[in-house]
Amino acid sequence: MSREIDVLVLGGAGVDTIVYVPRLPLPYADSYMIEQGIRTRAGQTGDFVALGLAALGLRVHHLDLLGDDPEGDLVRALHEEKGIALTAIPQPAGTKRAVNLVGPDGRRLSLYDVSRSHPDDRFPETTVRTLAGASRHVHVAITQPAAHALPLLRESGTTVSTDLHDWDGENPYHEPFAYEADVVFLSTTALPNPERTMRRITERGRAEVVVATAGAKGAYLLTDDELTHIPPAAPPAPVVDTNGAGDAFAAAFLYGWLNRETPERAALYGTIAGAHACTVPATEAESMSREELLAVSARRS
C-alpha cells in the first residue's frame, strides 16, 4: 500500500490567546496593564506538532474539527501559510480555543474552553480510514473525537503515537490513548512516580517506547524494559516561553524514530527541539529546521 503521508496528525487544532503576565500565580487584582499586548494566534498541540514535523521535512496531513468562525479561519490560514495539508470537518460548536497566561520565566497556565467539543463528536470513519491508510504514522492528540478513532487506526496497520501531557497517571480519560499507542509521550509534572507510570503503560498497553519529559531536567526514556535519563539540551537563547516545548520534542523524536534512529538518538533530537522552542515567543509559529536540528545534534555527539 502506498504511504503518501509520513505523519497524519489527528486532532489538536485550535487557537490560543497569549497573555504575558507579571508573575504566576497571578495575585488577585481588579486589573492589570499588559505591556506586551494580548494576542490571539492559531496553534494548539496538534497544530504545533504538525508544524514541527513539516519543518523537519516530513509530509504531514492534519485532520480535525473546525468551526466556521474567525478562529477556524486563523487555523486554516496557518496551515496554508506553512504548506501543511488540512482536512477540516465542520464543528457547529466552534473552533477550540484557550487562554495561556505566561510568566516572566516562561512558565504558563492554560485555560481551555471545553464548550467547543462534545463527548459524542466523531471523525467520519471513511475519512479516518482513507488518511490512515495513506500514512506511515499517526500522531493522536488527546482531544475528542480522537479517542473514538483509535480502533480504526489500529485496523489500518499504521503505527500510532500520542502525548498525554500532564497526566497524573490516574485519570481514566487518558488510558485508551496510553494503552493503544506505540510511542507515548507525557510530562513528569503531575506524576508522583514517573517510572512506575511509564512501566504501567508498557505493561498494560502496546507501547514500545515511553518518553517522560522533565523540562530543564531533560527526559526519561523507557524502551526494552530499560529506563534511561536523557540530559537536557542548553537553550540557544534566553528562555522566554515554554508553550509548545513538548510538541517540539514530540515532533523531533518522531522525526528520528521514523528515520530508524535509536530511541536514545530520537530523544536527543527531542531535547534539542524542545529547548529551542523555549526561546521562541508563543505569539510566533516558528519551528526548528532539520538543518538546525542535525547541526546541533552533531555537536553533542
Annotated CATH architecture: 3-Layer(aba) Sandwich
Q: State the separation between the terminal residues, measured CA to CA.
A: 36 Å
Question: What's the order of the H and E elements?
Answer: EEEHEHEEEHEHEHEHEEEHHH
Q: Return the average pLDDT rounded to an integer.
A: 94
Structural class: alpha/beta
Biggest β-sheet description: 9 strands, mixed
Rounded to an integer in angstroms, the radius of gyration calculated over CA atoms is 18 Å
Write the CATH fold name.
UDP-N-acetylmuramoyl-L-alanine:D-glutamate ligase
Organism: Streptomyces cylindrosporus
GO molecular function: kinase activity
Pfam family, one: PfkB
Keywords: Kinase, Transferase
Supply database-style keywords.
UDP-N-acetylmuramoyl-L-alanine:D-glutamate ligase; 4-stranded mixed sheet; globular; alpha/beta; 301 residues; 34% helix; 24% strand; 13 strands; Carboh/pur_kinase_PfkB_CS; kinase; transferase; 9 helices; PfkB_dom
Structural notes for this entry:
This protein is of the alpha/beta class and 301 residues long. The chain has one domain (5-26, 35-300): 3-Layer(aba) Sandwich (UDP-N-acetylmuramoyl-L-alanine:D-glutamate ligase), CATH 3.40.1190.20. Helices cover 34% and strands 24% of the residues. The chain has helices spanning 45-55, 70-82, 125-133, 146-156, 175-180, 194-204, 245-258, 263-277, 290-300; strands spanning 5-10, 15-20, 38-42, 60-66, 85-90, 97-102, 108-112, 135-140, 159-163, 183-187, 209-213, 219-223, 226-230. The strands form 2 sheets. A 9-stranded mixed β-sheet has the order 5-4-1-8-9-10-11-12-13, with helices on both faces. A 4-stranded mixed β-sheet has the order 3-2-6-7. Helix 1 (45-55) packs across helix 7 (245-258), helix 7 runs antiparallel to helix 8 and helix 8 crosses helix 9. The longest helix is centred in the last third of the chain and has 15 residues, at 263-277. It is globular and about 55 Å long. The termini are far apart.
